[in-house]
Design a protein that fits this description.
The protein is an alpha+beta fold. The protein is built from 6 helices and 3 strands. A 3-stranded mixed beta sheet has the order 1-2-3.
């Protein structure tokens, strides 16, 4: 809630949330890159931290992760579960790297944005969609030529 008691859910994250999220992302990436994880899944699987979203009070952070190079659903689930088990260790290490008043609770989720982008790319390359896109492109050229005469 804001100072006036209204909560605007359409409003995006504040600059502070974005800055803290990026600091947390860098810290987590550095910690995971060092390779000091005891969990066998995390010790053998490179993990990419793609985004960290921080709550307005900076006490909770949702970390979006994916195994480097993707992987099947089972491998992704194993990585997310392993990060959940290592949450206390990771939180402790993040506090040492990022100077915050409160150490945020870390929550890990699989980042599906790459899957979504791949699906959209597949759709755009379908023959029927490509045909419609070419048709729209020619129509836009015709409209542009008509404007020149005006």
């Amino acid at each position: 809630m804001t100072r006036h008691g209204h909560h605007n859910s359409a409003k995006g994250p504040s600059q502070r949330q974005l800055r803290v999220g990026e600091e947390l992302r860098h810290a987590l990436a550095w910690i995971l890159e060092r390779g000091e994880m005891r969990d066998p899944v995390l010790a053998t699987t490179p993990v990419t931290v793609t985004e960290v979203r921080v709550s307005p009070d900076l006490k909770n952070a949702t970390c979006f992760v994916t195994p480097l190079g993707g992987g099947d659903a089972e491998a992704i689930t194993e990585v997310v579960d392993a990060l959940g088990r290592a949450r206390k260790f990771l939180r402790h290490e993040v506090v040492r790297k990022v100077n915050l008043k409160f150490a945020p609770q870390l929550h890990f989720e699989h980042d599906t944005s790459f899957d979504t982008a791949g699906h959209i790319d597949e759709l755009l390359h379908r023959p029927d969609v490509a045909r419609d896109l070419r048709h729209d492109l020619h129509r836009d050229d015709d409209d542009y030529e008509g404007d020149e005469d005006a």
